[in-house]
Amino acid sequence: MFNKLSNGAPLTIHCKSRDDDLGKHVLGAGQSYSFQFRVNIFGSTLFFCGASWQGGQIKFEIYNTDRDDYGRCNEYCQWEARDYAIVGFKEGESKSYDISLPWHH
């Protein structure tokens, strides 16, 4: 997750799965946060996050095996917090996102 919010706004993110709570992290302008995991033997791995900043908040699935394990992000998933939404990119594509989740105000 990259903080690409304007005006130096901090981003707070808290990610977890059913088994692992990765804790809360505050990202300054231009900072990033990452984590690693292995898909479980059942193929049902799910990580979700809550993200917030002065412009809104959102809860979303940052990794879902059904969506992400078949060519979308086999090794690496890239997400960015932008002023209008959280956006996600297919692996190897850093210019055009395929997921856009608008902030809730």
TrEMBL record:
Keywords in alphabetical order: Secreted, Self-incompatibility, Signal
UniProt-annotated location(s): Secreted
Keyword ATP-binding: no
GO CC, any one term: extracellular region
GO biological process: rejection of self pollen
Pfam families: Self-incomp_S1 (PF05938)
Family statement drawn from the similarity comment of this UniProt entry: Belongs to the plant self-incompatibility (S1) protein family.
Name of this chain's protein: S-protein homolog
